[in-house]
């Protein structure tokens, strides 16, 4: 590792011997060499700039594979995932939602059809939420609506009310058209493929992957205290909320 050299010394070197120890592509005056990580890299002096800010840490990536009417899924989403998302800065946690779970995809007379663990209403709920994500596009727009649906009395009957509260700019008519048309089927086919590609294969829902991995330990930690798990895994500067977290109990998952 190169020794840390005071900026004044670097500047003196530049004045006395402009080409000494500095990258040929460095077009910046010496007093700016340590002003940013990009400039320090261009001048190849990063190891001599102790005051440079650390690179931004990657967010913890969490994917939730779930069913819209699975009770354990609804409780995890409403009591752990959504509150954790609210409490943490956006850059700490990246969430992907995949509504499909233990559903089965079938080809009936040349058309795709889906059979869901908790019946046709769950298939409708899965497709509604997939279409909502497709139409709203922005996670911060559609996640509160999905929270509203999953924490309410009916996943399939409260869309209008939840949109009015959390995302009035989203057109419910476009979501309905998606559900009733080919787009909804294509979205569910995509979710079936993504779920089917899990390694290891999912055995129940909610099925949670963290940074692309699933283990029994990660699943248990996420269900016990997702906030604590994300705070532990995140490599950047942590907010005060990471000081402590509670661990609620959850019912057994919806197995096949």
Describe this structure in words.
- This protein is of the alpha+beta class.
- 44% of the residues lie in helices and 12% in strands.
- It contains nine helices and seven strands.
- The strands form three sheets. Strands 2-1-6 form a three-stranded mixed sheet, with helices on both faces. Strands 3-4 form a two-stranded antiparallel ribbon. It has a two-stranded antiparallel sheet with strand order 5-7.
- A hairpin with a 2-residue loop joins strand 3 and strand 4.
- Helix 4 crosses helix 7, helix 4 packs across helix 8 and helix 7 packs across helix 8.
- The chain is elongated.
- The N and C termini lie far apart (54 Å).
Which SSEs are present, and which pair or pack?
Layout: H1 7-16, H2 37-42, E1 60-66, H3 71-87, E2 93-99, E3 104-108, E4 111-115, H4 120-136, H5 139-151, H6 159-166, H7 172-180, H8 182-196, E5 204-205, E6 207-210, H9 216-233, E7 254-255
């Amino acid at each position: 590792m190169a020794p840390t050299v005071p900026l004044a010394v670097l500047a003196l070197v530049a004045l006395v011997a402009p080409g000494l120890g500095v990258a040929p592509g460095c077009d910046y005056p010496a007093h700016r060499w340590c002003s940013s990580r990009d400039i320090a890299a261009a001048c190849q002096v990063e190891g001599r700039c102790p005051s440079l800010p650390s690179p931004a840490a990657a967010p913890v990536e969490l994917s939730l594979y779930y069913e819209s009417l699975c009770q354990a899924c609804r409780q995890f989403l409403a009591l752990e995932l959504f509150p954790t998302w609210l409490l943490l800065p956006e850059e700490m946690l990246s969430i992907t939602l995949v509504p499909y779970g233990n559903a089965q995809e079938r080809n009936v007379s040349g058309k795709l059809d889906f059979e869901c663990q908790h019946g046709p209403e769950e298939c409708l709920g899965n497709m509604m939420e997939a279409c909502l994500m497709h139409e709203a596009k922005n996670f911060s727009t559609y996640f509160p609506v999905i929270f509203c649906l999953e924490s309410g009395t009916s996943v399939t009957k409260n869309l209008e009310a939840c949109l009015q509260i959390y995302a009035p700019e989203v057109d419910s008519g476009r979501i309905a058209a998606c559900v009733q048309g080919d787009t909804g089927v294509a979205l569910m086919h995509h979710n079936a493929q993504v779920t089917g590609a899990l390694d290891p294969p999912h055995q129940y829902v909610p099925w949670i992957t963290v940074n692309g991995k699933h283990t029994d330990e990660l699943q248990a930690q996420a269900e016990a205290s997702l906030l604590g798990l994300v705070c532990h895994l995140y490599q950047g500067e942590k907010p005060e909320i990471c000081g402590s977290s509670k661990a609620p109990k959850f019912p057994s998952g919806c197995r096949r």
